[in-house]
UniProtKB/TrEMBL annotation:
Gene3D superfamilies: 1.10.10.1450, Ribonuclease H-like superfamily/Ribonuclease H. GO terms for molecular function: nucleic acid binding. This is MOS1T transposase. It comes from Acromyrmex heyeri.
Length: 213
């Protein structure tokens, strides 16, 4: 087994034993010294294993992306552009004071559809101010640390016949969330950004960062 494969296996072992990405990185650096994987690679493999990946091998590389993949990617980009247009309209109608001086900010993660050239051009054209998302801090995104789990619970176990049924049920659950819950999420989001700043943009998990350090 090559040293790279050995380190990936070690990362997988750490994930299965509940060891954080930051601690896994420290263990790899201690064990392998200058030959240790970079922070970016350790965090990336840690995340993939945490999401259920089993293999430590690289995925086979195709010479050219399939047409179906290209079509799906374009569809995701077009969908996201539609979401952003509706968001701008909502800000204009509901927060006219922010719209007037363009002082509102957008925070989204680094999904490919969010960072595509077409979407970035849309933001530049409309002077949209983006809060950058650190690449290995998924706990900063409200959808990840709050919304998705809140939606999954009432939807779990249901079988839907059509996409429209899924949209209808999801919309119903979103509207059922109390306004105070959204406000609490926003305060939690701000706290997590303070944690990110306190760690110098480095990886952190949940709300455990000591802001006084």
């Amino acid at each position: 087994m090559s040293e790279i494969m050995e380190q990936r296996s070690a990362i997988k072992f750490c994930v299965r034993n509940g060891i954080s990405a930051a601690e896994t990185l420290r263990m790899c650096q201690k064990a392998y010294g200058d030959g240790a994987l970079s922070q970016a690679r350790v965090f990336a493999w840690h995340r993939m294993f945490k999401e259920g990946r089993e293999s430590v091998q690289d995925e086979p590389r195709a010479g050219r992306p399939s047409t179906s993949t290209d079509v799906i990617h374009v569809q995701k980009i077009q969908y996201y552009l539609g979401v952003m247009r509706r968001l701008r309209d909502a800000v204009r109608r509901k927060r006219p004071e922010l719209w007037a001086d363009n002082s509102w900010l957008l925070h989204h993660d680094n999904a490919p559809s969010h960072t595509s050239l077409v979407v970035r051009d849309h933001f530049a054209k409309n002077l949209t101010h983006i809060i950058p998302q650190p690449p290995y801090s998924p706990d900063l995104a409200p959808c990840d640390f709050w919304l998705f789990s809140k939606l999954k619970r009432p939807l779990r176990g249901h079988r839907f016949e059509t996409i429209e049924e899924i949209k209808e049920k999801t919309t119903s659950e979103l509207r059922a969330i109390p306004t105070d819950d959204y406000a609490a999420c926003f305060e939690n989001w701000k706290k997590r950004w303070h944690s990110c700043i306190a760690t110098g943009g480095d990886y952190f998990e949940g709300d455990d960062t000591n802001l006084d350090e």
